[in-house]
Amino acid sequence: MRHDRLRFCAGAAVLAMLLIFTLSTIGAKAESQVKISAKAAIVYNGSTGEVLFEKNADERLPMASTTKIMSALIVLEQECLDEKFTVDSGAVNTEGSSMGLREGDEVSLRDLACGMLLPSGNDAANAAAVRVAGSIDSFVGMMNARAVKMGLENTHFVTPSGLDDYTDDHYSTARDMAVLAAEAMKNQDLRDICGLQRVKLKFGDPPYERWLTNTNKLLKHQGITGIKTGFTDKARRCLVSSCMREGCELICVTLNDPDDWKDHMALFDYGFSQVEQVKLSPKKPDISLTIADGRQVRCSIPEMVITMTRDGASRSESRVYLPDFIYAPVNNGDKVGEIVYLLDGRELGRRDITAAENISAPKTSNGVFIVIFRKIRQFTGL
After folding, report:
1. Does residue 251 share a domain with residue 131?
2. pLDDT exceeds 70 at position 23
3. Which domain holds residue 330?
4. Per-residue pLDDT, 21
5. Which of 65, 195, 321, 353 has the fewest CB atoms within 10 Å around its CB?
């Protein structure tokens, strides 16, 4: 018995070592295939939540002006984006990159969002913060509250611009910045602005037309759709970018990366090599729904086409939502329910379940039955 127990323990130990070795090998596989200079990096499929590459993705690091992704998102969610106002004189007097604001300038929040996302204006971030929240500190409070709501557990903001010379409490991670970027790119105004290489605006005192140029050089490459550059002496070069190929958009984040332009293109090439277009299907493709008079109607449940990893596709699941019954008449193509496709509890998408045939109105005798049935439901609450 003792020898059997020893053999079991030894076998379990070997199995555990093999498991650890396998997991570490899987984790190192991507990193060994893509050599990058970044201290931290990630490639993220925002549609599915899948991580295709990561390196120190949960290490807290300063993120410089990629901070302005959050600032611009909050600004572009405000009303009256094109209403002109005079900038706060104290807000525009700041160091670093600028959109060229001066005391007394008339601008709009949309102008300031462009000033943040293209030339990375610190003056634009501060001016927008004061306009939206009344003060820079109050706006930073909004940023941190939004980070909590997004589940960015390793992110904390101190400034709306990303300037971090006087603080060590302004930080994020590659993973959190990827999640933030994916959410921000759902805002159509932000997506449109950060994808511009240049933009002509009219602002100033008095307003006059001028051009702003985007610091994101990756936009010259085919498929690049956004999103933001960053640099401080403490954070070094930081970059968050997005790329669309064959309908799939990936997010790439590098923090403290001296060769970020090259690294992002290499990471995108690797990331897209790991995904493919797949069809997600319901577990039970043939489903019927009960009509109130006892008849059945056949239902059509659609598949979902999405770009993801094979492993993710194999782990996906579906949930069908149908009422207990419906009333006739029913026409072929009528919506009768929904199917939701998920990966690890995250919704990938939902599709309408429709009737696959026509069901005529009930006959008179059946109609009496339905009236009685409805009265019973009203009385019992069923």
Report:
1. yes
2. no
3. 280-380
4. 36
5. 321
Domain final residue pick, 217, 243, 274: 274
pLDDT at 363: 78
- For residue 339, give the CATH number of its domain: 2.60.410.10
Q: Which residue has the higher pLDDT, 285 or 13?
A: 285
Is 228 within any annotated ligand binding site?
Answer: yes
Distance spanning both ends of the chain, measured CA to CA: 61
Mean pLDDT of 209-217: 98
29 within some domain: no
Same domain for 212 and 114?
A: yes
> Where would I find the H helices in the chain?
2-33, 68-76, 89-92, 109-117, 122-133, 136-150, 174-184, 188-194, 260-273, 310-315, 364-380
pLDDT in tens, 51-62: 999 999 999 999
Catalytically active residues are: 65, 68, 120
pTM of the model: 0.85
Q: Which two tokens stand for residue 149?
A: 């709501």
